[in-house]
Amino acid sequence: DQQVKQNSPSLSVQEGRISILNCDYTNSMFDYFLWYKKYPAEGPTFLISISSIKDKNEDGRFTVFLNKSAKHLSLHIVPSQPGDSAVYFCAASQGAQKLVFGQGTRLTINP
Amino acid sequence: NAGVMQNPRHLVRRRGQEARLRCSPMKGHSHVYWYRQLPEEGLKFMVYLQKENIIDESGMPKERFSAEFPKEGPSILRIQQVVRGDSAAYFCASSPLVGGFTEAFFGQGTRLTVV
Prior knowledge:
A: 11 strands
């Protein structure tokens, strides 16, 4: 039962362009959503989050959009930089408890 | 200002042996979570602990796996009689909050290989 899904295993974007990573969820009780970035052989690093009462949160080059009716969130990175190449995980939580992660999307930024 | 510390970083065990994974949360954090990542998959929740209490162990296999977070010292994830399918990266995260949630901070993980 995959409650959080990232349907694109990989994404390739040219440097300077916008990267859009997508995530879908099935549990309408999720009230907090997060994006993590992960490099090989390291732990996930928190990137940005959004509460279910909002539909957008922005932090520098990173913006997360939440569409509750569609149960969909997306992460926009603009402009994309080579250092952004990593695996990105979306995660969701319900009531300040455990995180449920998607399978991850491997983002590659090409020079 | 140390982050979440996990040790060892790499652990090799033969089938049937025991594996002990340690996690020291960030200073001031009293909530610890353990996650497992199998190759090419996302992180799967295993257990959520507070000091001396297991809050949620719904993701932990019923047999061979146990976790503790004592009053003093690190949190320990223990796997008895390891099998090849236990080979994975095990991540620990800590959080300071009670009744609220911002983000959990992750350690670098322990990579367990069962041979």
